[in-house]
Structure formats: C-alpha cells, structure tokens
Amino acid sequence: MTGYGKGEAVLHGRTITVEIRSVNNRYLDCTIKLPRIYVFAEDAIKARVQKSISRGKVDVFVTIGQSENGDVSISLNKGVADGYYAALCQMRDTYGLRDDISVSLLSRFQDVFLVEKSPEDLEAVAADICQVLDMALADFDAMRTREGGKLEEDIRSRAVTIGSLTSLVEERAPGIVADYRARLEAKMAEVLQNTQIDESRILTEAAIFADKVAVDEETVRLRSHLDQLAHMLDQGGAIGRKLDFLIQEFNREANTIGSKCNDIETARHVVDIKAEIEKIREQVQNIE
C-alpha cells in the first residue's frame, strides 16, 4: 500500500536521515538509495525492510552527513611546501620584491598540509543507519495503521451492502419462477385456446426453469465469502494477497448469478453487487 515514513538522528557526530516511500505493487520491490561509500549497508537495510513490509514498490532514501567526531591528523606536506617556498623565493629575486615570505603566506596553500582522517568503523556506521531506519519504519507503520483503519471501515461497509443486495436477489428468486409460470400459462392458453391446458406439463416446464435459474448455491457461497472477508479483516496482518484471491471468488459468484437470472430486477441487483466488489478490489490494492 502507499505510505511514507521518516527517521532522523545525530549519532556519533553524524546526521543520518532515512525516508521510506511506497506505492501499490503486487509483490515487494525494494530499492535502496544511499551514498556510494556506504553501499556496504544495503543488504542490512533491505533485510530490515523485508521484515516489516511484505508487498509494494518501496524506495528507501538514506542521507548521511559528515562525522564531526573521529581522530584527524594534520602534517606538513614537505615536498609541496618546499616547492612553493622555492617558487616564491625565485619570484622575489627575479622581480626584486620585498622579502615577506612567511608561515602565514605558505599556509594559504591548502595542499601544503596533509589531513588524514581515521577510518570509519563500518559495522558501527551500518548499526547507526539501521537504528534510524527503524525510526522511519515505525513512522511508516503508524501511517499505514491510520490509513488501514479507514480502508477497513470502507471495505466492511461495502461488504454489508453486498449482503443486503444478496438478500434482495434471494427474495426475488421465487418471483422469477412464478412470473415464468404465469407467462407460460398465458402463452399456452393463447396457443391452445379452448383446449384444456395440461397442468402437469406446466409444472414440469416450471420445474425445469426453476432448476435452471436457481442461484441458492451461488448466494450461499457469496455469503460464505463475506464471512471469510470479515474473518480476514478481524485477523489483520499481511492479508492483501489473500484478499486478491477472495475478490476473484466474489466476482465468479456474481457473474454466475447474473448469467442464470433472466430477470431485470435481479440483473440490477447483480450490477450493484459487482460495483461494490470492484470498489473493494480497488481498496484491496492498498492493503499489504
């Protein structure tokens, strides 16, 4: 599901910022972006992300400021300093300049000094990055929890609507057969006119039609899917993929009901059911 989280801290004199952004994706696709010199921490970051996020296109951005701590040694770059001094003396003698070559003048040339920084403890740096990453993941999870609550409320509401529409389909089912029998009797009366109508033939035809348009099995399965949906939402956790499959089952039952019932009123109910299923399917894409 879509989400954002951020963590920032100053650890061992180094400012570390981690940002997490995610968009919908069927599977987990994690991309880590951090300074090249810290690429050694990428596997540790990815492993931590995979423990918290199971699907979505996730981008993790890591920025690290220079450490203010650590031992720094400064020494004279004698070869470079000698070269500058000789060149300055030559300039003085050639142009008859005043002798003002001093330490202050030579120190203006930055490369006369060698600045060496002690090597970083790579394991410590990786640990610091992961510590800030945990902060970002916590922020990310908090946002997902808030958004997830809204999604759950919407899905449950639509499930109730589907249940109500299913009841309307069930209530209409006997009427479909009764209407067919009435039409059949009227048609036979019109064709046979004064001839006596074979009541057993009408009953047989009505029974065949009733069996053909019966949707009780489909509505029972549809209600079973609604119960399963509620159970999954109660359980929580990473249920996105399971819900994807369940929505396919919802659609299968709705399509079967629609194809069986040659009735305008039932067809309207089926269209409304499928519209609610589609809205749930769209919301499920935002669920991990």
Automatic annotation (TrEMBL):
It comes from the Bacteria. Its cofactor is a divalent metal cation. GO terms for molecular function: hydrolase activity; RNA endonuclease activity. Keywords: Endonuclease, Hydrolase, Nuclease. Residues 169-288 form the Endoribonuclease YicC-like C-terminal domain. Residues 1-152 form the Endoribonuclease YicC-like N-terminal domain. Transmembrane segments: none annotated. It holds the Pfam family YicC-like_C. PANTHER family: UPF0701 PROTEIN YICC. Belongs to the YicC/YloC family. This is TIGR00255 family protein. It comes from Pseudoflavonifractor capillosus ATCC 29799.
